[in-house]
Inverse folding.
């Protein structure tokens, strides 16, 4: 168990190359189960979660090799349809093997993910969707045991909430179904567009990319894919917000400015200037930080995965900021840790009121979930004195070499055994 130690007060200066998106790489790795043969995935980040997903695929009979950020995955040897609890309990996204296994093997036995720090995170939309596609399932000792006689049957599925992984799971099931499937109230996150591109490249017939209605014409087989993982918009946003907190000037390369439509205006209103180029972003803060209100929404609204980072930023403004979390029921665990650094934050139901005090003081704090850890790093970069963050395994799930990237642009930050 490591901890991260940060000496606050050092503005950032230089260039950071953004990695591929965790939340795109995970479904793309699962989609290789849909067709035998060697699939090539480029720009794949090296994270705890991608390593866990590859271990899961290995347990199903797949083989893989990595050359830099390029993964070659061969699922010809698929010989198991059970995703075990010891793997699934560490990563909820394992549920994404359900669709491809049902499509390829007509059978899947996947452990229910269990609880998670930020909320109950049920998978009822996934299971209801598969039921409409002709899948029978039952709960057996904490596992979803699902099967279908032959191919799934296309259906019209409408989600109550535009769920990201439910959209991805049903998509991966429907591409090999008999007949047409329509997914209404589909999530529109860019990582889903990346998956649609991969599946269509494999021979699937999907229309409506990027919209809330996806039309899928089932086909009988797919061929191996070659796909590039989209840049990680949450990693990008995390660095933009970090410059807002500690000041300085950064260039972010290998990114896609179009993936964060709701962030730049918010940061601009707060006094953080972002200049967009083709695959680069320039960010600087030269004026006092202003308080802004945030309300998380499904894409293209403000991303829930940047809520904790924005809350840390608002602690350094001199005004009142209202932050409302509409996606998850328990995504304010970073508040208690920010309190330890002197933050003035009051929670009222799904909202938090941040009274910016212009600064924070370093302290020993504890990471509670992936994005909460990122908010503590941002707070530590700008706080006065030393901040020590324990349980950094949370951070390792979704950031590829965050400490290295920050130390190369002037942050005084290092990792050491706790
Ligand atoms: C994805 O989670 C992301 N994970 C999350 O990123 C992200 O925060 C979230 O989408 C929202 O953008 C991956 O892509 C691997 P949802 P997901 O289904 O799909 C409820 C990170 O930090 N719901 O869109 O699990 C759910 O409880 C992670 O990288 C049901 O009720 O989120 C939530 O309130 C955290 N039943 C809402 O819908 C279901 O069957 C939206 O969740 C499914 C979801």
């Amino acid at each position: 168990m490591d901890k991260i130690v940060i000496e606050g007060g050092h503005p950032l200066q230089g260039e950071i190359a953004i990695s591929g998106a965790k939340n795109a790489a995970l479904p793309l790795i699962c989609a290789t189960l849909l067709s035998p043969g060697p699939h090539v995935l480029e720009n794949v980040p090296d994270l705890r979660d991608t390593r866990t997903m590859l271990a899961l695929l290995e347990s199903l009979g797949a083989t893989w090799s990595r050359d830099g950020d390029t993964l070659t995955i061969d699922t010809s040897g698929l010989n198991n349809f059970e995703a075990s609890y010891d793997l699934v309990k560490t990563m909820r996204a394992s549920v994404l093997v359900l669709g491809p296994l049902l499509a390829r093997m007509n059978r899947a036995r996947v452990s229910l993910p269990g609880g998670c720090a930020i909320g109950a995170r049920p998978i009822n939309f996934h299971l209801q969707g598969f039921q409409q596609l002709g899948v029978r399932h039952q709960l057996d000792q904490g596992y979803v045991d699902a099967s279908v006689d032959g191919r799934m049957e296309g259906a019209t599925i409408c989600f109550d909430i535009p769920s990201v992984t439910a959209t991805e799971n049903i998509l991966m099931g429907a591409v090999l179904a008999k007949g047409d499937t329509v997914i209404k109230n589909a999530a529109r996150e860019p990582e889903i567009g990346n998956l649609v591109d991969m599946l269509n490249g494999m021979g699937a017939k999907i229309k409506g990319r990027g919209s809330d209605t996806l039309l899928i014409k089932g086909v009988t087989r797919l061929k191996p894919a070659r796909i590039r993982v989209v840049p990680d918009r949450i990693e990008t946003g995390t660095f933009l917000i970090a410059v807002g907190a500690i000041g300085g000037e950064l260039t972010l390369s290998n990114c896609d400015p179009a993936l964060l439509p709701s962030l730049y205006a918010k940061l601009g209103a707060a006094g953080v200037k972002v200049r967009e180029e083709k695959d680069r972003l320039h960010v600087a803060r030269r004026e006092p930080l202003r308080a802004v209100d945030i309300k998380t929404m499904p894409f293209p609204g403000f991303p829930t995965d940047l809520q904790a980072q924005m809350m840390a930023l608002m602690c350094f403004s001199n005004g009142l900021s209202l932050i409302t979390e509409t996606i998850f029921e328990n995504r304010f665990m970073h508040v208690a840790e920010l309190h330890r650094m002197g933050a003035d934050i009051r929670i009222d139901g799904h909202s938090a009121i941040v009274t910016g005090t212009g600064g924070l003081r370093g302290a020993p704090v504890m990471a509670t979930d992936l994005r909460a850890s990122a908010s503590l790093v941002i707070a530590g970069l700008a706080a006065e004195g030393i901040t020590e963050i324990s349980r950094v395994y949370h951070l390792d799930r979704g950031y590829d070499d965050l400490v290295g990237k920050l130390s190369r642009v002037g942050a005084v930050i290092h990792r050491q055994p706790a």
